[in-house]
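re the bet — no i am not wrong, look at it urself. input seq straight from the record:
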Amino acid sequence: SMGVRGGVAKMMMPEQAFADDFAPEEMERKIVRNASLQVEVSDTEIARKLVEQKVAELKGRITNLNSYEVRNGILSYNFTVRVPAEKLKDTMTSFTSLGVKKSESINEQDITAQYTDTESRLKNLEVRRDRLRELMERDTDKLADVLQIDRELSSVQQQIENYERTLKRHDTNVTFSTVNLSLQ
């Protein structure tokens, strides 16, 4: 009877039994976070300087800055800013505190599946490249075979470089959020 009770207890707590084996929580998610913010300020020149200081303090970068005259001598500014993703909320709070928030949007995109797929394709191509290199090292009398392997190796190497660039771009987009900021 003791064994039955132990079995019933396990059956009544399936969440606990499955929770320990639930793998998706362990997987590192690749999330891209971006935002847009429009703020009305009393002095756009002072606000611009404060934005530049804040971005420098966060070790971010202003990747684009446009200004346009709204009234004689008065400029509005549009920034594209890259900041560390973990500082996105603080950045938005800091920029909002410059004046009155007129609009805001925050977008999250989970690119984990794309990232994993690209990594997998890259690994397969690296294996193929290594096999082609082995073939090149073997003695062969046919120049046509050597040239064919060389062409294939060149093509595979180019594909590898493309996938490496894609992964690097994904890593940058996950690590650094983009904020489109308008100061008016």
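see?? The helical segments are 2-12, 14-19, 44-57, 88-96, 112-137, 143-175. told u. also The longest helix spans residues 143-175. so pay up
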